[in-house]
Amino acid sequence: MAYSAASACLWLALGSLAPAALARSVGPRDAVPAGYHAPSYYPAPHGGWVDSWREAYEKAYALVSQMTLAEKVNITSGTGIYMGYVPRRQDRTWLTGPYRVCVGNTGSVDRLGFPQLCLQDGALGVGSADNITAFPAGITTGATFDKALMYARAVAMGKEFRGKGTHVHLGPSVGPLGRKPLGGRNWEGFGSDPVLQAKAAALHIQGIQEQGVIATIKHLIGNEQEMFRMYHIFQEGYSANIDDRTLHELYLWPFAEAVRVGVGAVMTAYNAVNGSACSQNSYLINGILKDELGFQGMVMSDWLSHISGVDSALAGLDLNMPGDTNIPLLGNSLWMYELTRSVLNGSVPVDRLNDMATRVVAAWYKLGQDKNPRRPNFSSHTRNRDGPLYPGAIFSPSAQVNWFVNDAITLLKNDGGFLPLTAGPLRGGKLSVFGTDAQVNKNGPNACMFRSCNRGTLGMGWGSGVAEYPYMDDPITAIRKRVPDVKFYDTDSFPWFFGQPADDEVALVFLSSDAGENTFTVEGNHGDRDASQLAAWHGGDKLVQEAAKRFRNVVVVAVLFAHLPGQEAGESLTNVLFGDVSPSGHLPYTITRKASDLPDSVAKLKGFAFGQVQDTYSEGLYIDYRYLNKKGIKPRFAFGHGLGYTTFSFANASIRAVTAPLSATPPPPPPKAASNWVVPRGQGGFKAWIGEASDKLFLACDTETGKCENGLTPPV
Ligand SMILES: *[C@@H]1O[C@H](CO)[C@@H](O)[C@H](O)[C@H]1NC(C)=O
Ligand SMILES: *[C@@H]1O[C@H](CO)[C@@H](O)[C@H](O)[C@H]1NC(C)=O
Ligand SMILES: *[C@@H]1O[C@H](CO)[C@@H](O)[C@H](O)[C@H]1NC(C)=O
Ligand SMILES: *[C@@H]1O[C@H](CO)[C@@H](O)[C@H](O)[C@H]1NC(C)=O
Ligand SMILES: *[C@@H]1O[C@H](CO)[C@@H](O)[C@H](O)[C@H]1NC(C)=O
Ligand SMILES: CC(=O)N[C@H]1CO[C@H](CO)[C@@H](O)[C@@H]1O
Questions:
Q1: What is the spatial distance between Cα 538 and Cα 531, in angstroms, rounded to a whole number?
Q2: Residues 2, 8: Cα–Cα separation, whole Å
Q3: Which of 291, 435, 511, 656 has the most crowded CB, counting CB atoms within 10 A?
Q4: Its domain of life (predicted)?
Q5: With the C-alpha atoms ordered 403, 405, 410, 411, is the resulting torsion angle positive or negative?
Q6: Which residues does a 6 A CB cutoff place in the pocket of ligand 5?
Q7: Alpha-carbon distance 290 to 716, whole Å?
Q8: 258 near 49, Cβ under 8 Å?
Q9: Whose CA is nearest to atom 7 of ligand 4?
């Protein structure tokens, strides 16, 4: 998801170009490098053939079969950006504004009790809302390598999404997977290894969905850099050119795991794959996602990435978000009334529309949302701060989060057992702290919209994946609680007046490096780190060197890697610094000695090109540690590296196989539908008939007449 109020006026200005708006987007495709090809895959497979979804489909079918054409169309589109739920007057705040509660809102079918769905960012907590918890970022969670913590974080987050009355959580993010170290949104996901990413995503989905909130795995697929990702008037979004094996073994793996645990929604990426935009790539959605992986839920477009009406419907897209064309705010949509027309003029089979609507409704039933009706109430807490009305919204935030953060801090280097401080060097010595990253932004932790600045302690990256901090516990406050006479130098350049420290004096130097979504440019970085590259920001590298020149004892927090700790940045760090807790994080990616230790296709961002930018995955499977292993290059810190305060050794280890390896090829997938099946539909007299996979029919039939929706008669 990507938009901001700030860019709304720009869109309005672009509005005058509306007739030309889609020109580049829907023109003939640009050529992609030889060997890459986006095959066609039609028709779109129906949902409803997986046992665990069958009950939800039966109910969904019964409801959708009562809907008129206009009603079915209404629930497959958002109501438009900044539109949708109109909050009750007393619920309005500057955040929600008069027209906006959730970042996405669908149409409803009030007549049959199907509500508007509220779809909400972000990846580390309920976005754009107050009284929520700013959890540690995905990358911090990945660094725990701890399944119980991954799940517990998701349960707590899911309760907050539920407590705010949302239906759909726009997370987890597993694409980007982290192919490019300079990539802007790697921090939202769990790490650069497909199995780590997949396992963490699956646990996240389970934790969220057990709270009755639909999870959305995103972004399908190849969204490995931020710059040039979007289709607009002048240029297509870049094309990620990926061969089939690389797609399956790396980038698709987390999506497969998500489908296996029953994820309710998938969001497509802004970019193209093999030249075909992800929001209308039939091989990707119909072929790989729905047919091969057997996904039963709904496929939605990322915000404003919808660039065709008929084509995207046929290619398998089910929900257009936030409802506009890629030029928003003009009331135009490629679906809604246009989808009604497309069905009436025969361009989109009614059968496809039925499946689109059924998938949306089935996900809603699957998560029990019919029995748990809700309405977003993001600002209710302003009035009821001490009341028991929102127990889910404030879920023991500090206790729960402290717990997470402590266990994700990764100790990369600890020469001579320098840490923890109490056991070692600080006994009696003085402590000096350097770096603006040690203290919360003086204008408040939420001062910059969608955290689009890097001032003070860095608890999250920037963009749609963020949440508002209810407060931020910063490191300097937490350190002062332990060491009252600490000297803090709130500067990123070493103070010229600083004299010669005593031998037992300890320096803590705080530095950071930020990245985010392409919607904002921060200190010259367009989401990706195109300006800063891999260096620390604000001269952090120099600050460390200056301090190291003078101090015998320098602890650099980059060596104690806090990642993006969320709101509980301070205590969690001091607990580790002072030895109350042993650090137990592990790197969820590799740190190389230099950028050029990785191949250019991975180490470099794709810059501007006339026409469509081509991002070709020529390195194949060899990203991160896989490349280093293949080439025999030593990393600075390896994937999985992380020290603790304990020492141990083992000797004479041996390995023995406990289960025989599987046969070379995995077993075939279960059949889609063993035979046609008929669902008797109570008193209403409807029955659903689902054809064999090859027929792909899913029709409403009348029990009494035996006739089906579009004049077909089912076989008996
Ligand atoms: C992209 O092209 C490659 C090479 O032809 C092919 O193996 C792969 O399946 C294609 N992927 C998609 C999503 O079109
Ligand atoms: C479409 O959804 C909107 C928003 O919920 C609702 O006001 C309208 O009545 C719906 N239209 C139909 C035909 O149900
Ligand atoms: C049907 O209607 C859609 C939406 O207005 C339009 O894009 C499409 O070209 C039409 N198809 C035909 C065959 O007229
Ligand atoms: C807010 O929504 C939640 C979830 O639907 C509900 O339990 C709670 O009562 C609502 N609170 C208010 C004040 O509306
Ligand atoms: C490891 O094996 C060697 C040789 O068998 C033996 O001498 C030694 O004690 C073993 N070490 C441990 C820790 O068991
Ligand atoms: C309990 C709590 O943190 N309440 C806060 C909810 O948000 C409002 C601002 O929107 C604060 O004033 C409350 O303190």
A1: 12
A2: 12
A3: 435
A4: Eukaryota
A5: negative
A6: 651-652
A7: 27
A8: no
A9: 163
Q: Report which DSSP code applies to 219.
A: E
Alpha-helical segments (H) within 8-112 = 8-14, 23-26, 51-64, 69-74
Check whether 128 has a pLDDT greater than 70. Answer: yes
Please return the burial class of 499, using the count of CB atoms within 10 Å of its CB with bins 0-12, 13-18 and 19+: exposed
With a 6 Å cutoff on the Cβ, whether 637 touches ligand 1 is no
Q: Yes or no: say if 364 and 265 are a contact pair by the CB < 8 Å rule.
A: no
DSSP secondary-structure letter at 28? P
Burial of 13: CB neighbours in 10 Å, binned 0-12, 13-18, 19+: exposed
Give the type of residue at 201: A
Instruction: Please report, for residues 58, 193, 263, 315, 526, the alpha-carbon distance to residue 49 in angstroms, rounded to integers and kept in the order given.
Output: 11, 31, 15, 19, 43
Beta strand spans in 95-157 (E): 104-105, 118-120
Q: Is 62 helix (H, G, I), strand (E, B) or coil?
A: helix
Q: Which of 100, 3, 1 is nearest to 328 (CA)?
A: 3
- pLDDT, averaged across the chain: 84
Burial letters for 241-280: b for 16+ Cβ neighbours within 10 Å, e otherwise? bbeeebbeebbbbbbbbbbebbbbbbbbbbbbbbbbbbbb
User: What do you get for the CA distance between the two ends of the chain, in Å?
Assistant: 46
616 in contact with ligand 3, CB cutoff 6 A: no
Which two structure tokens, joined as six digits, stand for 674? 């063993």
What region does 504 belong to: left with phi over 0, alpha with psi -120 to 50, or beta?
alpha
Query: What Å distances lie between residue 391 and 132, 161, 521, CA to CA?
Result: 11, 12, 37
Contact 407, 144 (CB under 8 A): yes
416 CA → ligand 2 middle, Å:
67
Report the distance separating Cα 306 and Cα 22, nearest Å: 10
In this structure, which amino acid lies at residue 576? V
Structure tokens at 446: 């939420």
Nearest CA to ligand 3 atom 5: 338
Do the beta carbons of residue 361 and residue 58 sit within 8 Å?
no
Q: Give every strand in the sheet of 506-509, ordered side by side.
A: 487-489, 431-434, 506-509, 553-556
- Beta strands (DSSP E) in 147-210 are 168-169
Cα separations in angstroms, 441 against 175, 397, 448: 30, 21, 10
Per-residue pLDDT band for 704 (boundaries 50, 70, 90) equals low
For residues 100 and 517, which has the higher predicted lDDT (pLDDT)? 517
User: Measured in angstroms, how far is the CA atom of residue 79 from the centroid of ligand 2?
Assistant: 9
